[in-house]
Design brief:
5 helices, about 65% helix, transmembrane helix, mainly alpha, transmembrane, DUF6326
């Protein structure tokens, strides 16, 4: 009988700090990026364009294009860690800024195949939540 729920009781839960929530959102975002890009390899003609040295709408694959794309993907990856270790003020503003920037990037690039739109909607929700949690960062009395 001890294992049965008694009237008026609730399930145990812990309060998760905003830093952990934001870090988990960046990690979730990266998984969506990876899967969307992986599935994108199955779009007819994609592999042929890669073999021809073309990178989607960016045109010819150059060191500059690959470096820029790498930088664009490195920021969310690094934000997983930085969201946990940075001091609150810098942390908050970086997450607001990058959350907004990556929301805009997704909105610009997601309009192609249905699976890109599906992942894009999820990614917009995740980046929106990142910016929202950062904007609404809990305050405490100064000591």
């Amino acid at each position: 009988m001890d294992s049965m729920k008694k009237a008026g009781t609730t399930l145990d839960d812990i309060r998760i700090h905003v830093k952990m929530k934001i870090s988990a959102l960046w990690a979730s975002l990266m998984f969506c990026y990876i899967y969307a890009d992986y599935f994108g390899l199955y779009v007819p003609g994609t592999l042929q364009k890669m073999l021809e040295g073309k990178m989607g709408p960016l045109g010819p694959t150059t060191q500059g294009v690959l470096l820029g794309t790498s930088l664009m993907m490195a920021i969310p990856s690094i934000m997983i860690f930085l969201s946990l270790v940075l001091k609150p003020n810098l942390n908050r503003w970086l997450n607001i800024i990058f959350g907004a920037i990556y929301t805009a990037i997704i909105l610009i690039t997601m309009w192609d195949w249905a699976f890109y739109i599906f992942f894009g909607i999820i990614e917009v929700l995740l980046t929106g939540l990142i910016a929202w949690y950062a904007w609404n960062w809990p305050k405490q009395e100064a000591t």
